[in-house]
Amino acid sequence: QVQLVESGGGLVQPGGSLRLSCAASGSDFSGYVMGWYRQAPGKQRELVATILSGGATNYADSVKGRFTISRDNAKNTVNLQMNSLKPEDTAVYYCNAEHMVFTHLNYWGQGTQVTVSS
Question: Largest alpha-carbon pair distance within the chain?
Answer without folding.
Answer: 44
